[in-house]
Automatic annotation (TrEMBL):
It comes from the Bacteria. This is Bro-N domain-containing protein. Pfam families: Bro-N. Residues 1-119 form the Bro-N domain. InterPro entries: BRO_N_domain (IPR003497).
Amino acid sequence: MTTLALSFNDVNFSPVQQNGQTWLTASELAGALGYAKSDAVTQVYERNKDEFNSSMTLTLKLSVKGFGNGSSEKETRIFSLRGAHLIAMFSKTAIAKQFRKWVLDILDKEVGAPVAKTHKSERTPLHDAHAMLVAKTKHLNSSDAWKIINQRFGTEHIEDIPYEAIPVAVEYVHHLIALYSNADKMQIAKPWEDQDVQFLMWYVPKIAKLIKNEFYPALTLLRSEYAAQMIGMAQEMACHANILNQAAIKNGMTTYSCLGGQAVHTMKWYLEK
């Protein structure tokens, strides 16, 4: 494989050729993902090392510049493009989602190694988590639940989530389950009867939907580093607001009494165009 000239935003990578593949150093990955510290990616890896195998990351002694014109060899952690994609899955920086798409484009178009779709058997943990999410939420059907998961990972179909990212997706779904489970704890307090809370229940999903349908696509076309940050916030906003809306619906509330009888928002409404 020939050496690729790779750059992401302002980061120009110095790819390492190893085992016929292109690898990226941990420090350059840290810069590309927006971390202030050069060892941030190594720390992400250490926290999740059981998810990686030898085809995704390894250490090599690479020549690094020293004082003056001298150079020395240093033990350096490197990641294959698939490994870099998994690192970005664990990363919570604003630019991580955009970076993940960039890596997949490199794998598919420049490297010539398309990311294989997963088999249903490989997605069993994710299907189990999805079923639990639907059971817990009551007002979220199977199709809508898959839409939320796909939106989080920037995929059109669930089989497009890479195999190595399935554990990350499962963790995300359990995060949603925990959020929606909070709705059952609101039966006594009934916060949705408060006027200010109703305004939030009404406007937060509307703003999140505006971001999802209008601002996010526009920022993506502009290759803005804020695109991933905005869709991530919109997703969280919609999910948290839906906890209140779901709890209100379960208690028989169909309209916002403090907002002139507007219908209570549902997650299905948010997911629609």
